[in-house]
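Model: Ready when you are.
Researcher: Fold this.
Model:
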Amino acid sequence: MRACPGHLRPGGPSFVKDPTMPRGRYALYDPHDHTPLGVEQFHCAPGPSGWRYVSQVTSPSGDRAGSVDLAIDALGRPLRMELQAIDWRVRGAAIDGVSWVRTDASGAHATEGNAAAHAFTGTSPAFLVAATRLLRLTPGASATRLRLVALTAPVLAPRTLDQSWALLKSEAHSTDNDPLIVDEYQVNELDTGEQHSIHIAGDVVLAAPGIELEDLDTPPSSFT
């Protein structure tokens, strides 16, 4: 890998601090048997350089289970990604595909990795929003193939996978304020053949396998 850990240091683009930026809570569960996996408290905001999402994850018992910090540029590429689980941390960015450094809790052992992929993915809803910004799909267009590096708790071991995404439709839903535009995506897991739907409004996931939006204190932000 040509990148070194120094390229993956904390920091990144500045974002406008907006008191109305979405803050909320997702419930995470096993998409197959609906076993609760935890809760993700998040806030996110678009800015002049792209979009940023920050969250804390707690286990079903209420213990801290990890965190997510993802910043993407205006084209949807990961400028900075940091995932933390109880015993592992991964920091990555779009460098020669995507590159990352994975360390244990003590920081004594670090391994570097690189893959010819478009972006990262994982259990956090942040990665679904980031994928839509990267793809910029239009309703009715052919499905687009996406190669991702998946990082899932508890060990955050990297795994490369392929998906295809298609935007089925965009619909306006009436609210007390402005209409809410909801995009419905169809995602195919190319290695298993599984197919599922994802509903996203702005920078908030409304429904997806393993994800339930439980609370949102402001409307989703719109991307310009």
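Researcher: Now this one.
Model:
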Amino acid sequence: MSVKTLKIDGKEIAIEEGATLLQAAKEAGIRIPTLCHLDGVSDIGACRLCLVEVAGINRLLPACVTEVSEGMDVQTDTPKLKEYRKMIIEMLFSEGNHVCAVCVANGNCELQDLAIEMGMDHSRFPYRFPERDVDVSHDEFGIDHNRCVLCTRCVRVCDEIEGAHVWDVGFRGAAAKVITGLNQPWGTVDACTSCGKCVEACPTGAIFRKGVTVGEMDRDRSKLDFIVTAREQKLWTR
């Protein structure tokens, strides 16, 4: 496989063809904020937080799904990008019902961490206060759609790693939400193996274990790392 050379924030980088700008930046030790990205599953460019500027291209590109090409000159931390990322976080907060003070993931939430990193202390956009339901029909887990940011990590982890494909995205526009089965209560979906990978993958407090209260959720991302590694090394057969 051929190697591509490019610049990211003025740093010369060589990486194999087919790699994404996000992968190239990681190898170079350059951090690009992400929310929908999760190591071990496919990227879809849903959150747009990883937008970067590429010289000669008059639009911003999502680093997670943009492949490297020879001679690229990429900027990842310009004032324009910082403003766009802050605006995206503000829009996520205004679009949903994110009340950190009463969330199980308070203090352990990627959305919350990004808001702090971006310097967000309020949203410039009017809050929508949508009417969203909470599904606790499952014996072990629950989902609060008020906290969901439609990153689809749960969908991709369940499909690509667990192989159950319990989760999907239903409806359109402002009504879009993640669903289980064919929009059936989670507890009635026989395909669910109760593995908990969707809980570990969720960046917010949307999918949680029953019995946890405010600020008590603690994730172990190493569980996902093990699953991915085990699959790649064929440590078990299915």
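Researcher: Key takeaway?
Model: The first strand starts at residue 3 and ends at 8.
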